[in-house]
Write a structure and sequence with these properties.
With 334 residues, the chain is an alpha/beta fold. It has helices at 3-15, 29-35, 59-68, 92-107, 119-124, 126-143, 165-180, 193-196, 223-226, 246-266, 283-299, 325-331, and strands at 38-42, 73-78, 111-116, 151-154, 188-190, 213-219, 270-275, 303-306, 316-317, 322-323. It has a single domain, classed as Alpha-Beta Barrel (TIM Barrel). The strands form two sheets. An eight-stranded parallel barrel has the order 1-2-3-4-5-6-7-8, surrounded by four helices. Strands 9-10 form a two-stranded antiparallel sheet. The chain is globular, with a radius of gyration of 20 Å.
């Protein structure tokens, strides 16, 4: 085939891709964290994934609002297992939607974290989860291998239950080579077992030779405050719990200091991947807690991603089309 026709065909194929084919620059994990300082979790439970026509989140519009609202990154919560066939192949329609979501976020110059969020399935049945998780990263790794450096991968949200510290560390050693086969220098986010809890960070075993890794933790302590009245958490039924006393603030500082000590000892940058307080709590306390966590993270050079834009813990009221101002102001002070 004449070279001119090969060139035309290649150009046509590239133009059909939703994500820019420009190869990713190599960005250090630390510089990646600096670039995504203020983030927010999006799209985990939106109808968009099953029927884009019913989407609550309007990608082009809401990513623009997020960027204008002072945010640098979005953590896209992907529950991909329900969009796989019997051979663990991802639904082409779902992949097309994902391409459009990533393209819209990148158009706003937002860092995009692709977070595989099937943590409940994986914790309940690791044996069934593992081949699906491997298949997911093979497909996503290949699909986004030429995506810009602003696309970051997160192996799995909140490994738990059957994914003990030892099991999860063994999985990391298997999953990372799957990603590295197509994305040798892309930054990857990994957190400890027990729901990314800070208490298990010391058990996290990241391969020393891979310096394109970002450690993540989630912070919802004390649970009796942050999850008060949450129907899915029977351990926190009581409402009317406030937060903000000096001892409570001191506990948060001490908890974050512990994470920082680990980060320095292991020379790893940190993403506070989730934090916040459920809607049943007192708004003044929720805002105080949210502001304190965000500022403590920033003071230590971490990036953070608030849980979450829509649904519960809500930062943006989609029906009213406005930010929930106490929460937004706590996250991004004017």
């Amino acid at each position: 085939m004449p070279s001119v026709f090969k060139t035309l065909i290649a150009c046509a194929l590239l133009s059909s891709l939703a994500v820019s084919p420009t190869p990713a620059r190599e960005v250090s994990a630390r510089d990646q964290v600096k670039a995504m300082t203020r983030g927010i979790n999006v799209l985990g439970y939106d109808p968009l994934w099953k029927d884009p026509a019913k989407a609550r989140f309007q990608t082009a519009r809401h990513f623009k609002i997020i960027k204008a609202g002072g945010f640098d990154a979005v953590r896209i919560n992907l529950q991909a297992f329900s969009h796989m066939d019997a051979s663990n192949q991802l639904d082409p329609a779902w992949l097309k939607t994902l391409d459009q979501v990533v393209k819209a976020a990148l158009a706003q110059k937002l860092t995009v974290i692709l977070d595989e969020h099937d943590f409940n399935d994986c914790g309940a049945d690791p044996a069934a989860c593992k081949p699906r998780l491997i298949a997911f990263w093979k497909q996503i790794g290949a699909r986004y291998k030429d995506a810009p450096d602003k696309v970051v991968f997160e192996l799995l949200n909140e490994p738990n239950k059957g994914l003990t510290d030892d099991v999860w560390n063994a999985w990391i050693a298997e999953l990372l080579p799957v990603v590295r086969a197509t994305n040798p220098k892309r930054n990857v986010i990994i957190g400890p077992a027990f729901w990314n809890n800070i208490s298990h960070l010391s058990q996290l075993n990241l391969p020393e030779g891979d310096r394109h890794l970002i450690a993540t933790v989630h912070y919802y302590l004390p649970m009796e405050f942050t999850h008060q009245g949450a129907a899915w958490n029977p351990d926190t039924p009581k409402t009317g719990v406030t937060w903000g006393a000096p001892a409570e603030r001191a506990r948060m500082k001490a908890d974050f200091d512990g994470v920082q000590a680990w980060a320095k000892a292991h020379d790893r940058p940190v993403l506070l991947g989730e934090f916040g307080a459920y809607d049943k709590g007192d708004m003044a306390s929720r805002a105080a807690y949210t502001a304190a966590a965000a500022r403590e993270a920033e003071a230590r050079g971490w990036a953070w991603a608030y849980w979450q834009f829509d649904s519960d813990f809500v930062a943006y009221d989609i029906k009213k089309d406005v930010w929930v101002e106490p929460i937004h102001g706590a996250l991004v002070p004017k």
